[in-house]
């Protein structure tokens, strides 16, 4: 009888975890959390900047394809210190004349005129290159006439054009996108091929 009670007590004692076992499990969970979470948090923090750099890279590649497909030079300009960018044929005189003389343009003319885009919120184009301020210029208002926010676009200080020739080549160029933590991704356009290289995320020099 006593032996049966003893076995029952031992089995009941083993039904739960001891305090030491709970502490051990908690310690293991904390170690796993410390190992796994920091890389995940870094990836989440890096994602907006990576997405912005990829958007800029895709747009540069798209402008190059337009130059190849149309057998005409195309250009991309961006707003140093801002989020906006636009692309258009390099020869825009006929487009500007058409926009100023006609309130309503055909879809073909619209496709050949300037088109604007923006980087994600919180990301901007760098206003300098290796510490040297980028030169800016305004575009003629008639060039952007008919576009949404045409007046605001005409007031923007735009970068020098990144131009792609009909054979896909370009001029060696570099631009960068930055976030609020002074981290950047540089995009380098190779002149001979027109290809775009994207750098890893790096901290800007001050």
What does this structure look like?
The chain is an alpha+beta fold and 206 residues long. The protein has one domain: minor pseudopilin epsh domain (minor pseudopilin epsh fold, 3-Layer(bab) Sandwich). The chain has helices at residues 2-13, 19-70, 93-101, 107-112, 150-155, and strands at residues 74-78, 84-89, 115-118, 124-125, 128-129, 132-133, 162-164, 173-178, 183-189, 196-198, 202-203. Strands 4, 8, 9, 10 and 11 form a five-stranded antiparallel β-sheet that branches. A hairpin with a 6-residue loop joins strand 9 (183-189) and strand 10. The longest helix is centred in the first third of the chain and has 52 residues, at 19-70. The chain is elongated, with a radius of gyration of 29 Å. Residues 93-110 have low confidence and may be disordered.
What is the element layout, followed by pairings?
Layout: H1 2-13, H2 19-70, E1 74-78, E2 84-89, H3 93-101, H4 107-112, E3 115-118, E4 124-125, E5 128-129, E6 132-133, H5 150-155, E7 162-164, E8 173-178, E9 183-189, E10 196-198, E11 202-203
Antiparallel strand pairs: 1-2, 1-7, 2-3, 4-8, 5-6, 8-9, 9-10, 9-11
